[in-house]
Design a protein that fits this description.
Blueprint (H helix, E strand, L loop, with lengths): L7 H22 L5 H10 L6 H11 L11 H22 L5 H10 L6 H16 L4
């Protein structure tokens, strides 16, 4: 896919549609532009989402103030229950919307450590893959 310069028409569309419709509405009009391309263009040109649009997204996605998913007490309970023996993979199986990094960060914030048995499993897997690449 070859990057094409943005035309004046496309710039006007982004400026008019993006604040209230987001990248999805822009993409309906400009289907050859990707989500990344539309969002990057808007960011680089100071086109921001309207406050109403931001609130709508936050309410729909349960977004926290810093842009991520809010950690609720029941989520913390899942981390406390599963992380020590199952690691981030076990938590992710229960909460697939959480990334590895988010789960590990939350476990660290809650001062939850992997169990000794789990640490040995993780170290064995690392050792095995270092000795026999491709495993």
């Amino acid at each position: 896919m070859v990057k094409q310069p943005w035309t004046t028409r496309e710039k006007r569309i982004v400026e008019a549609v993006y604040p209230d419709g987001g990248w999805q509405e822009v993409n309906k009009i400009l289907p050859h532009r990707t989500q990344h391309g539309i969002c990057q263009f808007a960011r680089n040109h100071g086109v921001k989402m309207s406050a109403d649009r931001k609130s709508e997204i936050a309410a729909r996605c349960g977004m926290a103030g810093r842009g991520g998913l809010r950690w609720l007490p029941e989520h913390d309970d899942i981390v406390r229950r599963l992380y020590p023996d199952g690691g981030w993979q076990a938590v992710h199986a229960e909460m697939p919307s959480r990334s590895r990094q988010a789960i590990c960060n939350r476990a660290s914030t809650l001062n939850i450590k992997l169990s000794e048995e789990r640490m040995q499993q993780v170290n064995w897997i690392r050792f095995r893959s270092e000795r026999r690449p491709g495993l």
